[in-house]
């Protein structure tokens, strides 16, 4: 879960802060007084000279006086405000100016002990945070952490008492060094250049993040040959940078090291040592569980290597992998290894069981084929689907009758079980009358593998809080492959949020990180989403929005309005937006989904919405359903023409519709109120009418590998010419990484500790 930050304003370049200490004396009048004859001139110049926005104190060795508080999250600097510190007072820390970056934050307790300080904060939604760190060379370095695992970098700079406001400084530009590291990451020697930059400025948050990015991609970056000695140097530098920020960041670094070495199967002895060191650093319950899972993953790696051997060693490894599979039932590598072992030992029923899961469930077969391709396995080797058909025929009189139905039932029951298991993680909050209706906006794509977990998480969310307690919108994008559900309105909305990748998910206009992933990540994607939604549901509705919609004699009529009595005083930035959504669209997708929910078909009134007219914020329209459908057909035709594809299936049923209306403050993108209502007379949602977990097995010729690393196997693609389209250079979650169902800790961007979610590079970048 991310911190509840208002990211609406823009930033002060913090490089200035590092330089101000060198020039402060020029502003405060160091040296002798000028000659009397020049006094008037000097005084006039002083009057005309602008005062510096930041008035720094030099050579500070004690945590006292006034300090400007900044914290860094997702490579952005945010000014929290000005705090006054006094070790002899009670309380020792007082807020002098709060810029409302941390929404509704208040200090619960504080303690200054020499050069170290801890501050306990109360945040929105009854969430607590802990700020802790120490004074180093005149600057306070530390972390701001929330339970279960949120963490951000904190710096505090000493300023003079004359500095009474930081409002002149704007939030937020990328933190200092972002552009330099971006250039280094795109160079021909990214590891060498990023590592060099990080060691030159170890006190910058982006340096730690760059080192974490190197760690996460060690096995993929070709400009560095990793030896045990070279890695020892990297490990030393990485831990030294973490130590600057305190024990919480050191714990994060050690968990990162242990888990990434395990995932990438590098230097297992170092992974074991880092697991042990992290366990001694007093991890919280969640982190301790991650470490436990990480050690299990290391044992899994060893068992996967042993199962390819012969005799008792392979038999023991198979038993161990079955134990791991009970914990991680959707791990494709475990299923594939056990299927191969069962085939080799003539255990045909066991082999059918494992192969059925691989073929029926989303993305598993594609991941296996992709991994085999990367590992250089010879073309023509039977894939899971081909092996399954052969085994099924051998036990069913050379027929495949019943196989397709069995696979469909397995698909349905597995996803239903997954949704129910996710919902058991966190009990729902109690909803009060007049509660705020959170608006959840998801940007997805039928060809986007990591969008699967986000979509399943949203399905679980709607079961937890049924419509209309929440409002959900899915905007489809051509990421990474053409998507017949894409509309220009969705593209415009993606641009409104400055979207960069799919999946991207926003709750009431606030970005929710870490919701992407594959099947086994759906539970934690749901947990991340619940943290944001639960907090919103406990708020009272700020703006009351109403809407009505119906279809009669082929004509769609829609109206929506905001109650003027509930609108805030500052109304100019407010916009009323209205979306027409199709509750269920049946479409077999490359990422394994066969149904898509709350698909945005059109933003009525356009993506910009409707502004205030007088004292009213309202919108109404009418159109024929034929015109609406024609507009969607034209949009699909444009995608086909621009991307050289031909969609055999064009989902244009337009039955079972809803309207979502919301009021949004465009100055900060905050959603103040929303509502979702059914469109009367639009019919019922059409569920799929035939098995769709896979294509008919008779017509499913296995492919040696998917057309690109991010696409499922060719046999699972919709019948379009999508392989002709050039896709971004992104990778699907790697099969050769141990898959776990561990929660992903909230950490600064590009530095996820021990996590089961795919790294940022796995998300499908926008074309």
Automatic annotation (TrEMBL):
<protein>
    <recommendedName>
        <fullName>Thioredoxin domain-containing protein</fullName>
    </recommendedName>
</protein>
<feature type="compositionally biased region" description="Low complexity">
    <location>
        <begin position="748"/>
        <end position="767"/>
    </location>
</feature>
<dbReference type="InterPro" id="IPR013783">
    <property type="entry name" value="Ig-like_fold"/>
</dbReference>
<feature type="compositionally biased region" description="Low complexity">
    <location>
        <begin position="692"/>
        <end position="715"/>
    </location>
</feature>
<dbReference type="InterPro" id="IPR011990">
    <property type="entry name" value="TPR-like_helical_dom_sf"/>
</dbReference>
<dbReference type="InterPro" id="IPR036249">
    <property type="entry name" value="Thioredoxin-like_sf"/>
</dbReference>
<feature type="region of interest" description="Disordered">
    <location>
        <begin position="681"/>
        <end position="767"/>
    </location>
</feature>
<feature type="compositionally biased region" description="Basic and acidic residues">
    <location>
        <begin position="718"/>
        <end position="739"/>
    </location>
</feature>
């Amino acid at each position: 879960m991310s911190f509840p930050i208002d990211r609406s304003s823009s930033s002060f370049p913090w490089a200035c802060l590092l330089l101000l200490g060198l020039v402060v004396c020029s502003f405060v009048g160091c040296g002798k007084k000028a000659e009397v004859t020049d006094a008037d001139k000097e005084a006039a110049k002083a009057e005309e000279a602008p005062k510096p926005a930041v008035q720094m104190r030099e050579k500070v060795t004690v945590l006292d006086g006034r300090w400007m508080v900044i914290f860094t999250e997702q490579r952005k600097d945010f000014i929290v405000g000005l705090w006054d510190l006094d070790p002899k007072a009670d309380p020792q820390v007082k807020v002098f100016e709060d810029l409302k970056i941390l929404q509704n934050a208040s200090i619960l307790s504080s303690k200054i002990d020499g050069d170290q300080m801890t501050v306990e904060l109360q945040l929105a939604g009854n969430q607590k945070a802990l700020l802790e760190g120490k004074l180093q060379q005149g600057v306070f370095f530390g972390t701001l952490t929330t339970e279960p695992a949120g963490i951000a970098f904190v710096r505090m700079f000493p300023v003079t008492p004359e500095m009474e406001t930081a409002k002149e400084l704007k939030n937020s530009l990328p933190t200092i060094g972002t552009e330099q590291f971006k250039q280094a990451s795109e160079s021909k020697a990214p590891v060498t250049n990023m590592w060099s930059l990080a060691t030159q400025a170890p006190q910058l948050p982006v340096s730690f993040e760059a080192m974490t990015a190197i760690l996460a991609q060690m096995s993929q970056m070709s400009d560095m040959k990793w030896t045990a000695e070279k890695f020892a140097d990297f490990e030393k530098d990485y831990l030294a940078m973490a130590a600057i920020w305190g024990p919480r960041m050191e714990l994060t670094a050690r968990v990162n090291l242990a888990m990434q070495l395990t995932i990438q199967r590098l230097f297992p002895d170092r992974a074991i040592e880092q697991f042990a060191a992290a366990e001694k650093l007093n991890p919280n319950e969640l982190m301790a569980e991650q470490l436990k899972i990480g050690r299990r993953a290391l044992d899994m790696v060893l068992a996967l290597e042993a199962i390819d051997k012969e005799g008792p060693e392979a038999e023991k490894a198979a038993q161990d992998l079955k134990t791991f599979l009970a914990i991680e039932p959707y791990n494709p590598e475990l299923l594939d290894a056990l299927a191969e072992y069962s085939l080799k030992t003539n255990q045909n029923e066991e082999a059918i069981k494992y192969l059925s899961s691989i073929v029926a469930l989303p993305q598993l077969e594609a991941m296996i084929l992709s991994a085999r391709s990367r590992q250089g396995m010879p073309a023509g080797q039977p894939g899971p689907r081909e092996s399954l058909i052969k085994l099924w025929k051998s036990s069913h009189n050379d027929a495949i009758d019943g196989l397709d139905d069995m696979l469909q039932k397995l698909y349905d029951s597995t996803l239903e079980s997954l949704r129910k298991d996710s919902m058991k993680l966190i009990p729902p909050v109690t909803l009060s009358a007049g509660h705020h209706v959170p608006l959840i906006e998801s940007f997805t794509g039928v060809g986007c593998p990591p969008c699967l977990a986000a979509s399943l998480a949203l399905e679980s969310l709607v079961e937890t809080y049924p419509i209309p307690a929440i409002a959900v919108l899915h905007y489809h994008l051509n990421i990474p492959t053409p998507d017949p559900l894409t509309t220009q309105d969705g593209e415009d909305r993606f641009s409104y949020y400055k979207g960069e990748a799919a999946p991207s998910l926003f709750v009431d206009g606030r970005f929710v990180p870490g919701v992407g992933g594959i099947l086994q990540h759906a539970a934690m994607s749901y947990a991340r989403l619940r943290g944001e939604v639960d907090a919103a549901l406990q708020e009272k509705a700020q703006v009351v929005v109403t809407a009505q919609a119906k279809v009669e004699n082929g004509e769609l009529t829609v109206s929506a309005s905001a109650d003027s009595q509930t609108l805030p005083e500052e109304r100019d930035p407010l916009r009323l937006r209205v979306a027409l959504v199709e509750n269920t669209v049946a479409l077999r997708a490359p990422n394994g989904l066969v149904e898509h929910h709350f698909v945005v078909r059109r933003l009525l009134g356009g993506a910009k919405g409707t502004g205030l007219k007088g004292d009213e914020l309202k919108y109404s329209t009418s159109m024929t359903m034929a015109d609406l459908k024609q507009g969607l057909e034209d949009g699909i035709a444009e995608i086909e023409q621009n991307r050289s594809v031909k969609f055999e299936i064009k989902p244009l049923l337009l039955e079972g519709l809803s309207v979502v209306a919301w009021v949004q403050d465009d100055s900060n993108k905050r959603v103040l109120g929303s509502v979702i209502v059914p469109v009367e007379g639009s019919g019922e949602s059409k569920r799929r009418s035939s098995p769709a977990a896979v294509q008919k097995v008779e017509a499913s010729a296995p492919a040696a590998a998917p057309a690109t690393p991010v696409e499922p196997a060719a046999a699972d693609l919709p019948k379009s010419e999508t392989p002709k389209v050039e896709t971004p250079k992104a990778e699907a979650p790697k099969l050769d990484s141990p898959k776990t169902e561990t929660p992903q800790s909230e950490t600064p961007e590009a530095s996820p500790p021990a996590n089961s979610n795919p790294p940022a590079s796995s998300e499908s970048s926008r074309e």
